[in-house]
Amino acid sequence: MSRSDVPSVVFIGQPNSGKSTLFNSIAGPKAETSNFPGTSIKHTHSRVNIEGRLLDIIDLPGAYSLCTTDPAEQVVLTHLFGERPDLVVNVVDASTLSRGLELTLELVELGYPMVLALNMTDVAERKGVRTDAAALGRLLGVPAVPTIAAHGRGVKELLDRAFEVLDQGSRPRPLRFSGAVEDRIAALERSLPPGFPIVSNPRFTAVKLVETAGHACGDFLGEVEPGLRAAVDRVRRGIEEGRGAPAYEVISAERHHLAMKLFEDTSRVLRGRRMTWDKKVDAVLMHPFLGYVILAAVFLAFFFIIFKVGSPLESLLLGPFVKLKAVLAARLGQGLLFHLAEGLIQGVGGGVAIVLPYFLPLLFLMSALEDLGYLARAGFLLDAFMHRIGLHGKSVSPFILGFGCNVPAIMATRTLESHRDRVLTSVLIPFIPCSARTTIILALVAFYLGPLWAMGFYAANILVVAVVGWVISRFLKEPSPGLILEIPSLKAPRAGAILRKTWLQLRSFIKFAWPILIGGSLVLSLLSYVRADRWINDMLAPLVVKGLGLPHELGVTLVFGFLRKELSLIMMLQALGVDYHNIMSVITREQLVVFTVFISFFIPCLSTFAILWKEIGKKWAFVSAGLSVGIALALSWIVRLVL
Amino acid sequence: MNLLDAPANAPLRIVDLAGGEGARRRLLALGFHKGDIVALDGKAILRGPLLVRNCTSDTTVALGRGVAQKVLVEPVHEPL
Question: Is residue A238 within 8 Å of residue A184, measured between CB atoms?
Fold first, then answer.
């Protein structure tokens, strides 16, 4: 269906304004996600039917302003300027209204049809802030509706206003800057040559030309003609000389003052009712000593819950697949058909029974910690440690995601502003044991050598991440820009919102990773059908037998390990011709540890490699693979020396 | 003085944002402008970041020491 038939509605707001919560409550569980909400370069979109009317609703990543160098925020600009949505829903956190209004003012300057959602009015109430939404709406020329997205309150009225604006249009009223600045902008507006690509309206275009000076949104305004460039420079210099500050800062200050004035004119602050308990809780959560005790407890509980939920779920889900395979083996014999069916079952089974049981609770708990606002606080606490490895606190949440699966973790690095930080974090993530590798560590190391060994294995793993990070950061010349991370106010997470978020993230993971998992398994089955495993074993013998001191038959498991980490475990049993409980009868303890170490480190799995390639480029994908092989060899050698 | 030398839990006025354009633009976008009243709520151990609350908009950010050094402030003599 073409755009003209179904109106498109974009949701725009600053991070932590509850924008995605509002979006999800309208989109429901049917939303079509192209990617990870909140951490997404692409956006989440959904076609919804509201009382018989169709709408295409689009959730854009959170953005602090329309003038940005942040890659995730650039998406917002590309979409806004390129797609020209029929309606903008601007979501503002009512509890930090004066700041949120700065983006609102930019959107009003843009002048698209718009409605304002004054969200989280409950938090604002608790802080003692009461805003007259109707008055605010009148001043800006757009309907404003108070909402509490987490409870679904105000959503219906917001949609009613949205339809009114779609039907009758709205006239956003841009507020003027102070005299001298406004005059200069107006002069530039008049000197825009005919045919110059105007974004929405001449004033917005002129403001953005002055504000960006060839940065960020300047790119979207097209190549500036030579004469115009000089005119823009003249205006910018005029503003800078008049106020003694860079033009972008002057305009930002203008909006800041307008926003504060709007806030004062429409809101009452009852000082006596200011919320004090959350300041007290925060003082403990970020306390120089207690903060770390709580952090350690949270993470221990985090992993404990994941394994407590994951392992019974895994055995429960794995059962039917094992049975199905046995049935098929009996029915189909050993022909090509059986091998293909086996590959399919292993691919689907691996995705369903091995990754999901651990990944699902991890996503759920991550969403809960994020909604609560704890992840930002963990970032604050761990920043000093991350500095030691050349990163900062913002990399903490991609790393934590990496324990579930490296693929979404690498996608989540998009929230990092600098390219350098993204590359370094993405290269380090494959060294974090994901749920598939954890399965191997638990099944081999914890089961045969005891839980202490497994914990030691984990500790060694984190040490490896630290050392590799420290070494790579020596080579990356560009310094890290340093931490600027918002600490959102603490909020009680709501189960419905967390479940919706978990579901959306899970779906995009399934869409990306499962085809590769299943394809990889099919290839493996074909390899074993044509008996390619023998010559693979022979080819890898120098490495496997001489280098690592492992049995000859295990060569082929390394290839499997590249396609699917957890398959190496299954293939190891198959290759050695023993069942799980008798492994120790054919290999030694030392061999078991060497095998686990080597399999965990030797290469990122195919899906991870693919996402590295896509996200940070071919060069770094190969650097990551090369590093992994080198480190796996070195560690295996150290293990052989020590044991 | 810059934020690193500023006393904790006392109102401070931002007199200037020094440093590179990238960090300045980021600070402006997060609502930290010249003239705003801020307070230092805490410091992390091991030369970790500073917790800075903007009293004007009631928002809090964690700033790495490098960034905090670029935020120049002066004490204000009025209650928080």
Answer: yes
**Residue B11 near chain A (CB below 8 Å):** no
| CA-based nearest distance B75→chain A, Å | 21
What is residue A102's predicted lDDT score, i.e. its pLDDT? Answer: 92
Residue A346 burial (C-beta neighbours within 10 Å; 0-12, 13-18, 19+): buried
Cα separation, A259 vs A365, whole angstroms = 36
Distance CA A238, CA A595 (A): 68
User: Which positions 46-75 of A are in contact with B (Cβ < 8 Å)?
Assistant: 64-65, 67-70
DSSP 8-state secondary structure symbol assigned to residue A531: T
Nearest CA in chain B to A488: B60
Cα(A88)–Cα(B63) distance, integer angstroms: 32
> If residue A487 lies in a helix (H) or strand (E), which one and from where to where?
strand A484-487
Place of tokens 């949205």: A162
Comparing A288-292, A383-387, B76-80, the range with the smallest average pLDDT is: B76-80
Mutation target to probe the A interface, by most A beta carbons within 10 A, among B58, B71, B72, B78 is B58
Closest-CA residue to A239 (of A266, A270, A213): A213
* Chain B partners within 8 Å of A485 (Cβ): 49, 61-62
Average pLDDT for A463-477 = 85
For A588, the enclosing helix (H) or strand (E) is none
Cα gap A268→A270, rounded to integer Å: 6
User: What CA–CA distance (Å, rounded) separates B8 from A23?
Assistant: 39
Name the β-bridge partners of A116.
A90, A144
Give SS3 for A54.
strand
d(Cα A416, Cα A480) in Å, to the nearest integer?
11
Q: What is the pTM of this model?
A: 0.78
Residue range A557-564: mean pLDDT, rounded? 76
For residues A339 and A333, what is the distance between their CA atoms, to the nearest angstrom? Answer: 9
CB contact under 8 Å between B54 and A99, yes or no, is: yes
B33 touches chain A (CB under 8 A): yes
Considering only A145-149, A181-185, A520-524, which range has the smallest mean pLDDT? A520-524
- Which residue shows structure tokens 């120049």? B72
Characterize the bridge pairing of strands B11-17 and B37-43. Answer: antiparallel
The interaxial angle of helices A19-27 and A155-168, nearest 10 deg, is 80
Q: Which of B19, A6, A545, A297 is nearest to A558 (CA)?
A: A545
- The string of pLDDT tens digits covering residues A42-100 is 567 777 888 888 888 888 878 888 887 666 677 788 788 878 889 999 999 998 898 99
* Cα gap A361→A294, rounded to integer Å: 20
* Record: contact B17-A246, CB cut-off 8 A: no
pLDDT of residue A40: 40
Of the candidates A263, A220, A236, the one whose C-alpha atom is nearest the C-alpha of residue A97 is A263
Question: CA torsion sign, A324 to A325 to A330 to A336?
Answer: positive
For A155-202, the pLDDT digits (tens) are 999 999 999 998 988 888 888 888 888 888 888 888 877 777 777 788
Tell me how far apart the alpha carbons of residues A19 and A639 are, in angstroms, rounded to a whole number.
Answer: 50
Search chain B and give the residue with CA nearest A271.
B80
Looking at the predicted structure, is the pLDDT value of residue A275 above 70?
no
Contact B62 A482 (CB under 8 A): no
Q: What is the pLDDT of residue A217?
A: 44
Cβ contact A69–B42 (<8 Å):
no
DSSP A85: -
- How many residues does this entry show for chain A? 643
Smallest CA-to-CA distance from A13 within A88, A84, A70 is with A88
pLDDT confidence tier of residue A3, bands split at 50, 70 and 90:
very low
